[in-house]
Write a structure and sequence with these properties.
heterodimer, A: 99 residues, mainly alpha, Helix Hairpins, 3 helices, elongated, B: 259 residues, Four Helix Bundle (Hemerythrin (Met), subunit A), 0% strand
Chain lengths: 99, 259
């Protein structure tokens, strides 16, 4: 087994996350799929850190985690705010700007 | 393709055991109906990734992954899921016609592109491994980088964290535009709202000799279940029991007297 397999795994997970963002309608599930994509990217960073023999990749993966945590906090607050006014967590219902 | 650092023994076994499981869980995330199940499957994917990080000599990141992602982030997700509750957006029916085939075609394209690119790319040298970089310990090595080369991004990220916390507070804060009605006003409104049916409050759930819980509707005088006696959440979840099964003619009423 070579280290490439980790990269293949992360590519597959990233693709699955991308499909989830497009296909699912519940805003929270869409958010979880974005998290899956971020995690897949982190696996790539960690694997390349090992291939290159420096810890830079791990530091950047650490920053990604912090940014992802911020994103979750603000994103879920937005979802709750939308739910409070529109009584729905469906991404199809948040279409006020269209009309 | 350049042969990369071969990994034998335990790590290869771990990879071939956990990688299919994590891909299956990620696929399951797309296919299950309930958002809570998606969240649990995502937590499993994150735990497998944490194990991979530890196997790849990134011990600190593995531990942080468990604490931050499966601990804090997924707990937050579950918390919001419980707050928002069940609604129609959980259904898997597609609302935009033809979206699903296009999405799957695009995904196969993207995945194929990524995988074939990785298969063709070569680094031109052997992978190095982290033995030298982790010489003084993984945490020490990361700290060395964080507080020297990456100190400015570190500060920026801390500012981002504080901003996000503030933003969440601003978004979650709910300004009342009208004062909360007092009990007296609520009672007056109930009596003036046209029908007197709900004036004394909604009926409680059914109380039966053999079952006394909130999931059975009370019976109206004509024997039909009263829909207003059951919480709407239980109805949406499909957890309401039929009160017919607790009626007296269905229940064995013969009493065995004890001596």
């Amino acid at each position: 087994m070579s280290l490439d397999n980790y990269l293949y795994l992360s590519a597959i997970l990233f693709t699955i996350g991308a499909v989830g963002v497009v296909v699912r309608r519940n805003a929270i599930v869409v958010f979880m799929c974005v998290e899956l994509m971020l995690n897949a990217a982190n696996l790539t960073l960690v694997t390349f850190s090992r291939i290159n023999g420096t810890l830079d990749g791990q530091v950047i993966a650490f920053f990604t985690m912090v940014v992802a945590a911020c994103e979750v906090v603000v994103g879920l607050a937005i979802i709750v705010t939308i739910y409070r006014s529109r009584r729905s967590a469906s991404i199809d219902d948040a279409s006020l700007l269209k009309r | 393709m350049q042969p990369l650092l071969t990994i034998q023994g335990p790590e290869a076994a771990l990879f071939w055991f956990l990688a299919p499981l994590s891909v299956a869980a990620a696929l399951g995330m797309l296919l299950v109906k309930k958002a809570v199940h998606s969240a649990l499957l995502l937590a499993w994917v994150m735990i497998t990734l944490a194990i991979f990080y530890i196997a790849q000599e990134a011990v600190f990141l593995g531990v942080v992954q468990v604490i931050v992602y499966t601990g804090a982030v997924m707990m937050l997700f579950l918390f919001i899921l419980m707050l928002v509750g069940v609604d129609s957006s959980d259904s898997l029916t597609e609302t935009i016609a033809g979206l699903r085939p296009i999405a799957i075609t695009a995904a196969v394209g993207l995945g194929g592109l990524l995988v074939s690119l990785l298969g063709r790319a070569t680094l031109g040298r052997e992978p190095i491994g982290l033995e030298i970089a982790n010489n003084a310990g993984n945490v020490q090595g990361l700290a060395q980088f964080l507080f020297s080369k990456y100190v400015f991004p570190f500060e920026v990220v801390s500012a981002l964290l504080i901003t996000a916390a503030l933003g969440a507070m601003v978004l979650a804060h709910h300004q009342r535009t009208n004062p909360r009605p007092s009990q007296r006003e609520q009672a007056i409104n109930r009596f003036r709202s046209g029908s007197l049916a709900g004036a004394a409050g909604l009926p409680g759930p059914g109380v039966f000799a053999r079952h006394n819980a909130v999931d059975v509707p009370a019976l109206l005088p004509d024997g039909t279940p009263a829909p207003s006696s059951i919480s709407a959440t239980l109805k949406a979840r499909g957890d309401v029991l039929d009160s017919g099964q607790f009626q007296l003619d269905n229940v064995d009423t013969t009493v065995v007297e004890e001596k």
